[in-house]
Amino acid sequence: MIEIAYYVAMSLDGFIAPPDGSLDWLHRFLVEGEDFGYAAFYRTTDVVLVGRRTYDQSLTFPTWPYPDKPCWVFSKAPVAPRGGVVHTTLGPRAAAAELELRGHRRAWLIGGGKLAAAFRADGLITEYIVTVLPVMLGTGIPLFDGPGPHQDLTLVDTKTYPLGLVQLRYVPAR
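Structure (tokenized):
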């Protein structure tokens, strides 16, 4: 079975972005020489899974953020084409099966909240790596934007950083 890791930053009040999906709230935490484990995590994945809004936003960045990995975009509507991008209308279960058939072993589920909720509802997330930032956004896109079943988790690691960030790593309880 393919591993699917939800690696995400979240405000203390449970949002992964403000309502407009912007990343401005993260800028004060960008410090030279500290990536909060991002590079090490990124190396463990071989495919990236994003929702439509996340994909559209990534197209506005100065450089493509996933240059060496295929990027699957989940959207009912067509997406702007780009090399290495796979547009899919599949649901999470069918997509996970297709990813496995294509030889992928570990996916990074970036988001947004609706896509994460869909994968969680189907019991497909094998690891949750949530970095809590010392910010209250007040409103926005929740960590999971949709219902899901009760799920017990096991904390397997924590890391704290000088800027007040706390990274929590959970796996589903056995």
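The CA atoms of residues 10 and 132 lie 5 Å apart. Strands lie at 3-11, 15-17, 47-51, 71-74, 85-88, 106-111, 127-133, 141-142, 153-160, 166-172.
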